Amino acid sequence: MGEMSEGIRIDMLRLIFSLPEQLLKGYQMGKEASFLSRRRFENVAIIGMGGSAIGGDIVRTIILQESSLPILVWRDYQIPPIINNKTLGFFVSYSGNTEETLCAYKEAKKRGSEVVAITSGGILAQEADKDGFLTIEVPKGMPPRSAIGFLTMPILGVLNKLRLSRSYEEDVVEASKILSKKMEVWRRRAVNISQRLYNMLPFVYSTSRLLDVVAYRWRCQLNENAKVLCHTGELPEQRHNEIMGFGAPDFVTRRIILIALVDQMTHPRNLFGMKLMLSLIKEDLGGTIWIKSEGVSPLSRIFSTIVVGDLVSVALAKRRKVDPVSIPRIDKLKEALR
Ligand code: PA5
Predict the structure, then answer these.
(1) Predicted confidence pLDDT, tens digits, the chain (338 residues)
(2) Ligand 1 closest atom vs CA 92
């Protein structure tokens, strides 16, 4: 059990176990939204921060696999010129009070973008309602990062409803089934992994572009839930630069556990390259862990590897005796900025 800044008691593990249901419900929320825009959009932008923005990366990764729809994920106050009156903008903020997202929202509205707000309330819900934009309300009382299904899936539902993408119905069902079936197995594996990560520095490497977002999610979850630093890298790129850095400072790199994320789309040369790289740096490493995605659809492969990372972050939090729910520094910073 952990505690949110509002004093709400939360069981983070239970929320991770709710993900299969979140995926199904979240997708339906998007499909059932009363959104009837007849505008022709030239691009889609997904704007948010932290746990509310990662869903944008997931959607973008999936859409990129199979469509030419230009799709952008943005995390800042100012927005680029490509976001204009031909843009469908998803503004995602769990609290609805994140200032970067609100500032970007104001500017997008000024430029005439069509907006869909995804939030549990706050200023974003009020503003979007006042401005006549669609708001998809997600359940309240959760840490934003644990609502990843509710914050991601409505975007896919709306895109399909507007015929900007295919239907993801079957993919969602597959992902939800795999997650439900494997959750307990993964939880036990996560406990073992957390033992290896204790007092070590995790480096999460993705070996296919489908899993870049997963590596980033691992990093954010290890940061926020387990309160540890984590680094991410991508293969083959890291083979052209970072490989030279292993070994210095030696007291740091010997404590690195390299977590390699592998997918059916991982190019054979990347797999071979990863193994070669490991053989070259093994003296300067603390160890390696391989994680393989499961399922057929990109959605299943992404979420099957995300969930393992989420579970590891909670298991490591327990091992470190820290609260996976509270994020005091982030709260203090937001408060001070307010
Ligand atoms: O997971 C978290 O709690 C954070 O990363 C938040 O998502 C981030 O600070 C943005 O807040 P919000 O999701 O309320 O817009």
Answers:
(1) 777 777 778 899 999 999 999 999 999 999 999 877 788 999 999 999 999 999 999 999 999 999 999 999 999 999 999 999 999 999 999 999 999 999 999 999 999 999 999 999 999 999 999 999 999 999 999 999 999 999 999 999 999 999 999 999 999 999 999 999 999 999 999 999 999 999 999 999 999 999 999 999 999 999 999 999 999 999 999 999 999 999 999 999 999 999 999 999 999 999 999 999 999 999 999 999 999 999 999 999 999 999 999 999 999 999 999 999 999 999 999 999 88
(2) 15
* Ligand 1 site, residue 101, Cβ cutoff 6 A: yes
313 lines ligand 1 (CB under 6 A): no
- Find all residues with CB under 8 Å of 308, minimum gap 6, and list them: 186, 189, 190, 193, 291
41 lines ligand 1 (CB under 6 A): no
Ligand 1, atom 7, residue with closest C-alpha? 51
Give me ligand 1 centre to Cα 106, in Å: 19
- For ligand 1, say whether the CB of 144 is within 6 Å of any of its atoms: yes
Query: Cβ contacts of residue 64 below 8 Å, gap of 6+?
Result: 71, 209
Sheet holding 231-234, edge to edge: 231-234, 201-206, 256-262, 287-292
Q: Is pTM beyond 0.85 here?
A: yes
